[in-house]
């Protein structure tokens, strides 16, 4: 097989894996009275599952991202975030919560956002196969969705620009309490 053909086969397999990876919902939902605890990873299938669970449980007032690696579909995060914000739900991180990447964006959707001391909030840049998010000019269309979502949820896009510089797409930066406060992720103080 020619070298170019081998590269195309490898790329097709990689893209096929990414599509298959996104086709399965890997988030679990657990109810705890007025709290809905989320764990896993957000895929393109997750919003339908999440919204159905909200519809079936009108007593839910607080979304608790618990152990979430992030997302493989940012549009899915936006749909879930919109559902949280539209319904006036709060988000809360327990002392044992660990959220990363797209799960942090989901947390931003809470009407009230609270964090217990000890929670881990990890952020990084994104990559699209052509480069890191931080390598695109600020006016590039690649930023538009994230900028709009962050502004809608926090009233400013400063947090989004911070995430691009905090760590590369294959790394992670665990935010400090000072950074969490600086970018307005909370609507009140860190809870002890």
Keyword list:
192 residues; 8-stranded mixed sheet; 8 strands; 21% strand
Write the topology of this structure:
Elements: H1 3-22, E1 26-32, E2 35-42, H2 46-56, E3 62-71, H3 74-86, E4 90-93, E5 98-100, H4 102-107, E6 113-115, E7 120-123, H5 144-154, H6 158-166, E8 173-174, H7 177-182
Structure commentary:
Helix content is 40%, strand content 21%. The chain is α/β, with parallel strands linked by helices and 192 residues long. Strand 3, helix 3 and strand 4 form a beta-alpha-beta unit. It is globular. The N and C termini lie far apart (62 Å). The N terminus is likely disordered.
Nutshell version of this structure?
The protein has 192 residues and is α/β, with parallel strands linked by helices.
* Proportion of residues in β-strands: 15-25%
> Which stretches are poorly predicted, pLDDT < 50 over at least 5 residues?
1-20
- What is the average per-residue confidence, as pLDDT, rounded to a whole number? 89
Could you give the order of the helices and strands?
HEEHEHEEHEEHHEH
Number of strands: 8
The largest β sheet comes out as: 8 strands, mixed
Distance between the termini: 62 Å
What best-fitting shape do the alpha-carbon axes yield? globular
Q: Number of helical segments?
A: 7
Please bin the fraction of helical residues: 25-40%
**What gyration radius follows from the Cα positions, in whole Å?**
17 Å
Structural class: alpha/beta
